[in-house]
Design brief:
Elements: E1 2-6, H1 10-22, E2 26-30, H2 33-42, E3 46-51, H3 60-68, E4 77-82, H4 87-96, E5 100-103, H5 108-117
Parallel strand pairs: 1-2, 1-3, 3-4, 4-5
Helix pairs in contact: 2-3
């Protein structure tokens, strides 16, 4: 499965990409929401995006809103992976169209479980 990891932290992108690659997935990366939109437009077959909330240029929340406003990505699964732990932030992300929400720090098992919960 092709997965796009979106995080402004190179270390976090590398960590998630390693976990997902070990599970047999093809991983693309972007450092912010705007770059992620460019990657999505240039790549076919992305099934899920793991999205950080706090990023420069375009936040993860803004990315979720933009993706959900584009019918081409209606089947794309979105998982927020973030340090935002306030319940109102979780609710905002889910209402905007995120499918799942993972709080940092997390384990590989948590990511695997969330992917399964999304039917992936």
């Amino acid at each position: 499965m092709k997965i796009l990891v979106i995080d402004d932290s190179r270390a976090m992108r590398t960590l998630l990409a390693g976990m997902l690659s070990d599970l047999g997935h093809e991983v693309l990366q972007a450092g912010d929401g705007k770059e992620a939109l460019d990657v999505l437009r240039a790549s076919d077959g992305v099934k899920v995006c793991l999205v950080d909330w706090n990023m420069p240029v375009m936040s993860g929340y803004e990315f979720v809103v933009a993706v959900r406003a584009d019918a081409r990505y209606s089947a794309l699964k979105l998982m927020m992976v973030t340090t935002e732990t306030e319940m109102e932030q979780v609710i905002r992300a889910l209402e905007a169209g995120a499918d799942e929400y993972v709080m940092k720090p997390f384990t590989q098992d948590v990511i695997v479980d969330k992917l399964k919960m999304m039917g992936l």
